[in-house]
């Protein structure tokens, strides 16, 4: 499609980026809302990050999503950051305003909105949460849990030093809410937890299974796996079998996309069951 004054363009950038389902999500919303817009993929290497941002700065692109491995680099090169992106040091959504590029991290929004939708009241009791993993996704999840007022958040990671580093970086001033946990102690740490979140790639298609016992986890605790391929991981299956509320990660993918769409195309989109099924069908076709 040729560039015209009536066509707004946005894209997802990464390296690799061919696997991204963002064009399917945003294409669905463009179609349902009748917007003359284009959203596609663009493979961008580390050397091309600044050129991409310049396209946003001068209006060739209204904005875009940023995926691995560029989230931290983009945070360093945009002109302005939201408070969330500044706190996390990573950007997954950019847009142009008056010749400047703004950056946000909507993974926090996606995480919270998914749980709010799929498990209303999940944060009613906020005494203790356990987060598995200490990467970029864990950073966003921990920040989201802090904003909801959780009093204690344990961070269990295969590298205890990485868990300690993340706890030090995100520890609220004047408080001691974030506690690093040795990986071998992950199962025992579930005692009295209200929420368990897996942010690791363990359990993802093509990856080893997540080895954890839920024996000490209270049956009312919410179990959330941000993995969405497969939709039901071994962790979620085990949680459901013992009666725990269990939430998959697909909704986080969908909800994190909505704020960017609203910035670029001027309308707030809805995360619907139809959109969710569209992505599930695409995953099934890919896996076939």
Can you summarize this structure?
With 288 residues, the chain is an alpha/beta fold.
Task: Give a structural overview.
The chain is α/β, with parallel strands linked by helices. It folds into two domains: 8-106 and 252-287, 3-Layer(aba) Sandwich (Rossmann fold), CATH 3.40.50.10860; 120-244, Rossmann fold (3-Layer(aba) Sandwich), CATH 3.40.50.720. The protein has helices at 22-33, 49-57, 71-77, 83-88, 107-118, 136-147, 160-170, 234-241, 250-265, 273-287; strands spanning 8-14, 37-43, 63-66, 80-81, 93-97, 100-104, 128-132, 152-157, 178-182, 195-198, 222-225, 246-247. Helix 5 crosses helix 9 (250-265). It starts with 7 loop residues before the first strand and ends with a helix.
Set down the secondary structure blueprint.
Layout: E1 8-14, H1 22-33, E2 37-43, H2 49-57, E3 63-66, H3 71-77, E4 80-81, H4 83-88, E5 93-97, E6 100-104, H5 107-118, E7 128-132, H6 136-147, E8 152-157, H7 160-170, E9 178-182, E10 195-198, E11 222-225, H8 234-241, E12 246-247, H9 250-265, H10 273-287
Parallel strand pairs: 1-2, 1-3, 4-6, 7-8, 7-10, 8-9, 10-11, 11-12
Antiparallel strand pairs: 3-5, 5-6
